[in-house]
Design brief:
The protein has 486 residues and is α+β, with helices and mostly antiparallel strands. It has one domain: FAD/NAD(P)-binding domain. The chain is 34% helix and 24% strand. It has 15 helices and 20 strands. The N and C termini lie far apart (55 Å). InterPro entries: FAD/NAD-bd_sf (IPR036188), MQO (IPR006231). It holds the Pfam family Mqo.
Length: 486
């Protein structure tokens, strides 16, 4: 085996792009090779039409602040998500200033984030949530209203032909929210990586990972066009292949993957590019999830900007496929089963009957029923204005008998291999996730890399929400640099 490199990245999404960019900045002399099984990068979860591009900062997503049985609400998770998104913003700002990324408007645009709820119980909850968040520095500027005239100014489509007498409603709004095209961002990062000497091998699929006696990894792959096999040796491997990651990590036989399983959930969105509708809705509006719905299925009406064109997306409507990727295998859900994760997966099935009921209900929904769901947000919606599009697959983590929210990095004890499992809010918090991975897998180098990390992320290692002045200065600076001033 003649070819040996420092880093192999598996998967052409935002995670591999972010990690590769960070490592190239920290260690320019390292050889990096990225493998992507499709003909282009950002074709799965990072693709703009496979996600809602929210720019998750917990400004509007209620699932990060669930109400406890005693009625209490804890803002800790929402604050953490916001902290993580601020790191992404700082990294993108540095990369724009260095010329790594193109004009900010090509991948990020100012888009207020809103929450809209109906019914006395949810209105009371939203009011309590607002009272907690308005005191947090990273949530400065959040607004609350139960006045239809005010909400109509924020998002006219929500209020047309809606009467307060039918049921109480309320909304919050944070003007500093964003819309992010992660597909464009991923492509720009990979363009820079290849210009900096990294190699991107498209239409190449990694088929096997085997640890060598010297601690390196023997990586087998094949060219999906010519079906020709190949192999390479790597000192470090990152598996950022979405739902495919669990299969590769299981094949690598690292003990840390034991007990893990993933549950695939697909989605569809209703989309419109009707200029009259797009003009009336310049926000991302989230609501409460249906009983039993997975966290990623929270209904929302999102303003999007993709390749410079404005559109609206509503959904998601859950679909089911045994595939772990949109372009995966029908056998994915079965081939992940091992003796060490079977019990946990069966427990998830037994203890999540609400989820099963929800998925069955979603699968039985006709297009007309989906339009009815849209009209709960947009009372005047016309079916002919909206098309149904298929979104990406999400592989949600199952561990210890529980279906988990979020993303999780699984790494070997020696730090020579790591992979990412899970879904939302992954893309938005990619910088933070990859920084934590670097701390874990390159612990012996972090100290010497820290000055460079602080250049890229000025508040690296700090918690912005603990210092109101620092939080204000950081968010103002990145907003200005990225052109996302409210």
């Amino acid at each position: 085996m003649s070819e040996t490199v420092d880093v192999v990245l598996i998967g052409g999404g935002i995670m591999s792009a972010t990690l590769g960019t960070l490592l190239k900045e920290l260690q320019p002399d390292w050889n990096i090779v990225a493998f992507e099984r499709q003909g282009e990068v950002a074709q799965e979860s990072s693709n703009a039409w496979n996600n809602a591009g929210t720019g998750h900062a917990a400004l509007c997503e209620l699932n990060y602040m669930p109400e406890a049985k005693d009625g209490s609400i804890d803002p800790a998770k929402a604050i953490l998500i916001n902290e993580q998104f601020q790191q992404s913003r700082q990294l993108w700002t540095s990369l724009v200033e260095r010329g790594v990324l193109d004009e900010p408007k090509t991948f990020i645009n100012a888009t207020p984030h809103m929450t809209f709820v109906r019914g006395e119980k949810d209105v009371e909850y939203l009011r309590k949530r607002y009272e907690l968040l308005k005191e947090q520095p990273l949530f400065a500027g959040i607004e609350y209203s139960e006045d239809s005239r005010v909400i109509n100014q924020w998002a006219p489509l929500l209020m047309q032909k809606r009467r307060k007498s039918d049921e109480p409603f309320a909304a919050t709004r944070t003007p500093s929210g964003t819309d992010v095209d992660f597909g464009a961002l991923t492509r720009q990062l990979f363009d820079h990586l290849t210009e900096s000497g990294a190699e991107l091998r498209l239409n190449h699929e990694v088929t096997k990972l085997k640890r060598q006696s010297d601690g390196t990894w023997h990586v087998k792959y094949r060219n999906n066009v010519g079906r020709t096999p190949g192999e390479i040796r790597a000192r470090f491997v990152f598996v950022g292949a979405g739902g495919w990651a669990i299969k590769l990590l299981q094949g690598a036989r690292i003990p840390e993957i034991k007990g893990y399983g993933v549950f695939p959930i697909g989605g569809q969105f209703l989309k419109t590019t009707n200029p009259k509708l797009v003009e009336q809705h310049r926000a991302k509006v989230y609501s409460q999830a249906a009983v039993g719905a997975p966290p990623m299925s929270v209904p929302h009406l999102d303003a999007r900007v993709v390749d410079g064109e404005g559109s609206l997306m509503f959904g998601p409507f859950a679909t089911f496929s045994p595939k772990f990727l949109k372009n995966g295998s029908m056998l994915d859900i079965v081939t992940q089963v091992r003796a060490h994760n079977l019990g946990s997966m069966l427990k998830v099935a037994v203890t999540n009957l609400d989820l099963v009921k929800y998925l069955i209900g979603e699968l039985l929904k006709s297009r007309a029923k989906k339009i009815e769901g849209l009209r709960e947000f947009v009372p005047t919606a016309k079916a002919e204005d909206w098309e149904l599009i298929q979104a990406g697959q999400r592989a949600q983590v199952m561990k210890d008998g529980k279906l988990q929210l979020g993303t999780e990095v699984v790494s070997s004890a020696d730090g020579s291999i790591a992979g990412l499992l899970g879904a939302s809010p992954g893309a938005s918090t990619a910088a933070s996730i990859m920084l934590n991975l670097i701390k874990t897998c390159f612990a012996d180098r972090v100290a010497q890399w820290e000055p460079k990390l602080r250049e890229l992320i000025p508040t690296y290692g700090e918690m912005l929400n603990e210092d109101a002045e620092k939080a204000r200065a950081s968010t103002t600076a990145t907003a200005s640099a990225l052109g996302i001033n409210a």
